[in-house]
């Protein structure tokens, strides 16, 4: 049996979970999320023990994989509605900066025009200063995806280290061309 899949997901106080027609939904202080899980999986909510259990029909390889995946997704949803997931990015480069106007993130990162990215629904975007971006959401996938989209606008380059990177990300630096003397 899947080691991850057989672990029950605890439901903390203040969080309500329900299953209906192949959809698991959870509501907590930080928001509401829902997941349409695979038809082969069975999600059971144990109200007395305050936990969610995922069951699979047999030991086929595909069902074993879906078992662990479904349990992990449900666990992330329950954790996200209690404390939101957070991703921090930093912008490195002379004149590189970010700003927010309405529901749009504007990035000035060395291109002739300003890159405008719409902020997805459910994701909170904050700028502590114009070179740091903080993303928060109850949905782990939404935060990670939007952070990856932002980083892809100008990934860090290895020669000067300029670009958008995750906070704490190590960028391997390369030596540039050495000036060769003619001979």
Keywords, separated by commas or semicolons:
single chain, 183 residues, alpha+beta, Outer Surface Protein A, domain 3, three-stranded antiparallel sheet, 2 helices, elongated
Mean pLDDT over the full residue set: 92
CATH architecture of the largest domain: Alpha-Beta Complex
Q: Characterize the largest beta sheet: strand count, sense, and whether it forms a barrel.
A: 4 strands, antiparallel
Q: Give the low-pLDDT segments.
A: none
Rg, rounded, reads: 22 Å
Report the portion of residues in β strands: 35-45%
Q: Helical amount among residues, as a percent range?
A: 10-25%
Give me the number of helical elements: 2
CATH topology name of the largest domain, in short, is Outer Surface Protein A, domain 3
For the biggest β-sheet, the strand order reads: 11-12-7-13
Instruction: Find the CATH superfamily of the largest domain.
Output: Ribosomal protein L6
Instruction: Give the ordered list of helices and strands.
Output: EEEEEEHEEEEEEHE
Name of the CATH class of the largest domain: Alpha Beta
- Report the principal-axis shape: elongated
Amino-to-carboxy terminus distance: 70 Å
- How many domains is the backbone divided into? 2
Structural class: alpha+beta
Total count of strands: 13
